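Below sits the subject:
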Amino acid sequence: MDPSKEHTSLMKDLSIDNITQNAILVNSLSGNARFTFLFERLTTHLHAFARETRLSTEEWSAGLKFLEEVGQKCKEREEFILLSDSLGLTLLVDLINHPKPANTTELSLRGPAHTYDGPLMEHGGGISHDARGEPLLVLCSVKDSSSRPIEGVAIDIWEADAAGNYDVFYPDREGPEGRCTMYSDANGIFWFKGIAPVNYPVPPDGPVHKMLEMLHRQPWRPAHVHFVFTKQGYDELTTAIYLRGDPFETSDPVFGVQESLLTEYEQADDAVAKRYDVKPGTKVIKYDFILASEKEVSDLRDKRAEQALADLGHKTKWLNGLPVPDVD
């Protein structure tokens, strides 16, 4: 690209009043309407933040240093995902892109500990080998929004160990632990054995934990088990089951808890214990998941996108399935 041939703004005599518009103009040359729109809105809000807060040079420098530390910690784990989670950005993006109809299961966060190497497991298999954990039986079903069972849904499942650590947090990890993949049967049923989930803190050795301390926010996540549901024709569902009554139920530092995702333990009676080969009194979680179709979600997502652009004073056109302002 020859800069002398590009139609850019005259970058002279810049001031608090005109730097934003100049930055928007020079970022508008890509020829990609969606890319231009993203940078126009990013620049607008980023500059507005600096103006409104009267951001000091020291604060700006500290912010850059913080992001540098987050990046360095990513050599060990997904600290940027954790940062996004703790700022509520992850949940916001998920809610925008995967809006769920009222009668379907709500989403929750995937988090920084998800992997794609969980072993394929038959129903009734045990996902945890942690002898410290309290045995748990999980009995679930998966249906569509008309309450019809869905067969062949791929379900990715993972949980922390009894110390609140995921397998990926251990430097000597040799393979998957506390995770698996299984498929729902003809009746939409799947079940497995694990350990009772425990609450645990955001990793204390990173910049995100330090940020939470500075904000006087508690760092503990409530006890939960993660799930991802995938099947052609249905919107992918990333969610989790949380235990009602957890002391951190209403103060999750990554904003993952939804009221509809809270459940309570049952105890395995003699009949359940015999049927599922567990000891009487074993803790049991039961939950029925409801998947939305791709069409249900895409229709709702597009409707809300058009309204969001209308609120900015724009009509909507679509570029590769993404909304951009129609300025023609």
Notes: The longest strand covers residues 135-144. The first helix runs from residue 19 to 26. The mean pLDDT is 94.
